[in-house]
User: Fold this.
Amino acid sequence: MGHSAMYKFFIETYGCQMNAYDSNIIAALMTMAGFERTYESSDADILIFYTCNVREKAAKKVFSNIGLLRSEKTKVIAVGGCVPQAEKNMIFKCKHIDIAFGPSAYRKLPAYVSKILNDEEDRILDVELTQSSKFDCCNAERTVSRSEFVTIQEGCDNYCSYCVVPYTRGKEYSRPAADIISEVKMLLAKGAQEITLLGQNVNSYNGDAPYISIGKPRGSWNFERLLQEVAESDGLKRLRYTTSHPKDVTVGLMKKHAQIDILAPFAHIPAQSGSDRILKLMNRRYVAQEYIDKLNMFRDICPAIQFSSDFIVGFPTETADDFEDTLKLVREVGYLSSYSFKYSPRSDTPAATMSGQIHDTIKAKRLDILQRELMRSQTLHNESIVGKTMETLFDKPGKKSMQYVGKNVYMQSVIVESDIDLTGKFGMVLIEKAFKNSVFGRLV
Ligand code: SF4
Assistant:
């Protein structure tokens, strides 16, 4: 493409790790097409907003940030990801937007940007959902860091009643195992040491095996098989995955945690609520006791395992008793860390039109109580590792000079002091002090 380095682009990313991953690929594609990346929005000709619609007011936030980041230099504004997918009928109400593209269309972004720059089109909308096309470019050139994400699956068929993912990301689709393994190998060859396998619901992975046996139907791999094969890749030091649906967490997966050394003993298994009545309304397809039993079995099979979760408070009709059940579950499980949110209605989801919507002040009060309980548990976990030596992968400098921050197997933030730059390195750290959100230690 003829623009060479004349035009610079800036990407602003919102939301989940999946989006961070997609953004990385967009940056690689734009660079390959001859555009130059800048990290200063004021210096950019092209502003790309890669968005997430799962949390409340996402669209509004994007629109207001477009206003903030636009400058005299801006020639093209592109908005991608879940917001245009979900809001396709109103996205161009923001008159500054030139291109709106869904999660399946980002491969075509460089071509769309050129069309706008050349005045071939006024506005472009591409929110077609296709299954495999978005993965075609995953092996494109991109900057590789020590810790990398690899998408193994997209979309979701679970239709939890509060969630937009099945509508914005489409049907569940597992990437072929051969593609995943070759991407992992490429990342490891370029220096990655930690890989996180990503998907809305990784444990229902069901992808084509990398070979076709003659005369037999194409084989398929489940998540356990994929984990095993990825774990055996040369040079891999740590393996993670996220996120899981409780109903698909199998005994086989628990056993893999006990067997594979480099598989981090940490599982994010979102409970969402501890009330069976609310879980039913959420269409989660388990009751609280089944969830707790499963986690206990996990601990029996792999004693080192720790858990994190997501919670929604103030789901329609949630009573004080329902909320109490959630607190009870939290106390019983003892999570290492968790994310919790106030329920917020998303358009087109069944829960948005349920009667019995909860007033915001009640939601806020419940969220506060829940977060205190979760924080109490997190602090206890941080304190429990004082005196232990733990392997840490450092990813950035700390707030003070000579400080570096990394993550241990449990994703706890570990801070140390060091004369040498530790960024991108593994180190053994003796944990000396614990705080609410981090632990402090020294290299040994
Ligand atoms: S499992 Fe439920 S919450 Fe998770 S992406 Fe699918 S529908 Fe959404």
